[in-house]
UniProtKB/TrEMBL annotation, chain A:
Pfam family membership, one: ABC_tran
CDD domains the UniProt entry points to: ABC_DR_subfamily_A
Lineage: Bacteria, Bacillati, Actinomycetota, Actinomycetes, Micrococcales
Cross-referenced PROSITE patterns: ABC_TRANSPORTER_1, ABC_TRANSPORTER_2
Top-level division of the source organism's lineage: Bacteria
Domain ABC transporter span(s) in chain numbering: 9-234
Protein name per Swiss-Prot or TrEMBL: ABC transporter ATP-binding protein
Keywords, alphabetical: ATP-binding, Nucleotide-binding
PANTHER family, per the entry: ABC TRANSPORTER G FAMILY MEMBER 20 ISOFORM X1, ATP-BINDING CASSETTE, SUB-FAMILY H, MEMBER 1
GO molecular function ontology, one term from the record: ATP binding
UniProtKB/TrEMBL annotation, chain B:
Protein name, entry field: Transport permease protein
Residues covered by the ABC transmembrane type-2 domain: 9-235
Domain of life the protein comes from: Bacteria
A Pfam family matched in the record: ABC2_membrane
Organism this protein belongs to: Occultella gossypii
Keywords: Antibiotic resistance, Cell membrane, Membrane, Transmembrane, Transmembrane helix, Transport
Length: 244, 237
């Protein structure tokens, strides 16, 4: 496992115990700037636990998580990391603009109005800005959630299953948005349990039962396993029982 | 802190029915009690205590539900990944609901001193001050207990569990000095007793001495907010 220049997240030997189960066991992961890193694995494989560890909101048992040179969750990172939770964590009884303005103020963004306008444009929600968040469709609400994470131009954006339950057109446009965010130099970490979405990522981390099955570029993984889809590659890796 | 308070008030503004209930329900209940006692001596003797009850009960309920919603909807987890101190979060809630409580206390005391004819010896502004402190006590208690409720059902049950005993022992039903000795001692450690003592003192004395009750109330508010902030964890298992 090579630590590349420009790596934003370094997870080393991470172990997390949740209740009676070991949710993550000896996980090593790197996330690089300007790229989309896909965190793929079935439900219950530890994706959310890994994401929460990178955000520094998860109690860990062993190992280290370093983000931009600081321990995960430390105070200097609170302006540098945007977190898109699985369920929209915005206030349903506020309008879209009021939600974003509040989070921008908490972040201490210099020009609250300008930054709110900017992120609304990125997620294409300009016309809904005065609408109550509770009255939005599921897809629109998840875009508000994404917009909130982009306030203050964080250097790392972490998204937990942002495309679940969305129609294919909306999913496609969200992935275009992620690519746009990564192109601005931001590191993007996206989790998904839909293996088809692997082709959208620059790098992949395949997770299963709390362990990393493999990581690398999508092309690498297909070549190494001699398969032609991420799903087939995943199955091949499980059959081999190999670890990276 | 200001940003959080403004956000909480904005949420309330989108919910005019809740605002109306915060402001109108205490006034309706006070009028009902006045009617029940036909404005007689019983009403005069319990009137000041009633002014202390409603702010605390209502703010306790609203705060415990609002904070529980923050905990369960993921917004609290998001806020704790942002540069927001726990004191700002709690202080924001206390400030926003303190504003609501001030308006409520102004309305309730205007009603009591005006149309309902309650006579007090001390300055009426002190009644409002005590009512606001009392509502902050409700906010602080609500923030604290919301950490121990996993569902809205549990949060609502904390009302009879935490607030009702204080109402029974605060001197509203039986003067505190006339309670059985053990219950009197219990009432001495419950914060609402001091709010009611303070209200009664303002009603009786033209120059009331409120040092003890106000110090106890403020100490309880600060203490409960500190305990509440200890229940906000940035890292959870």
């Amino acid at each position: 496992m090579v630590t590349t220049a420009g790596s934003v997240v370094q997870v080393r030997g991470l172990r997390v115990i949740r209740g009676p189960t070991t949710a993550l066991d000896g996980v090593d992961v790197t996330v690089a700037e300007g790229l989309i890193t896909g965190l793929l694995g079935p439900s219950g494989s530890g994706k959310t636990t890994l994401i929460r560890s990178i955000l520094g909101v998860q109690v860990t048992a062993a190992g280290s998580v370093t983000v931009l040179g600081h321990p995960a969750g430390s105070a200097p990172l609170r302006r540098e990391v945007g977190y898109v939770t699985q369920a929209p964590s915005v206030y349903p009884d506020l309008t879209v603009a009021e939600n974003l303005q509040y989070f921008a103020r908490v972040l201490g963004v210099a020009d609250v109005r300008a930054d709110t306008d900017r992120v609304l444009e990125v997620v294409d929600l300009g016309p809904q800005r005065r609408q109550l968040t509770a009255t939005l469709s599921g897809g629109e609400a998840s875009r508000v959630n994404l917009a909130a994470a982009l306030l203050g131009r964080p250097r790392l954006v972490v998204l937990d299953e942002p495309t679940v339950g969305l129609d294919p057109v909306l999913r496609d446009s969200l992935w275009h948005t992620f690519a746009q965010i990564a192109a601005s130099g931001t590191a993007v970490l996206v989790s998904s349990h839909v293996m088809d979405e692997a082709v959208r990522c620059d790098r992949l981390v395949l997770l299963r039962a709390g362990r990393v099955l493999a990581q690398g570029t999508p092309a690498d993984l297909l070549t190494r396993t001699g398969t032609d889809s991420a799903e087939q590659a995943f199955l091949a890796l499980v059959r081999e029982g190999r670890t990276p | 802190m200001i940003a959080t308070a403004a956000r909480v008030l904005r949420q309330l503004r989108h919910d005019p029915r809740t605002i109306a209930m915060i402001l109108v329900v205490p006034c309706v209940l006070l009028t009902l009690l006045w009617w029940i006692y036909d404005g007689g001596p019983t009403f005069t003797s319990i009137g000041p205590a009633l002014l202390a009850l409603f702010p605390m009960i209502i703010m306790f309920l609203i705060t415990s539900i609002a904070t529980l919603r923050e905990r369960r909807s993921g917004t609290l987890e998001r806020l704790l990944t942002l540069p927001l101190s726990k004191i700002s979060f709690l202080g924001g809630y206390a400030l926003a609901f303190g504003v609501m409580a001030t308006v409520q206390a102004l309305l309730a005391s205007a009603l009591m001193l005006g149309p309902l004819g309650l006579e007090v010896q001390g300055p009426w502004a002190l009644l409002v001050l005590i009512a606001v402190l009392d509502s902050l006590l409700g906010v602080a208690l609500g923030l604290f207990v919301s950490a121990f409720a996993n569902t809205e059902f549990q949060a609502v049950q904390f009302m009879p569990a935490i607030v009702l005993p204080q109402v029974l022992l605060c001197g509203l039903l039986v003067p505190r000095a006339d309670l059985p000795r053990f219950l009197e001692i219990v009432s001495n450690v419950l914060p609402l007793s001091y709010a009611v003592d303070a209200m009664n003192e303002v009603a009786r004395e033209s120059v009331p001495d409120l040092t003890l009750p106000l110090v106890v109330l403020v100490a309880f508010i600060v203490g409960m907010l500190a305990l509440g902030s200890a229940t906000l964890r940035r890292r959870t298992p």
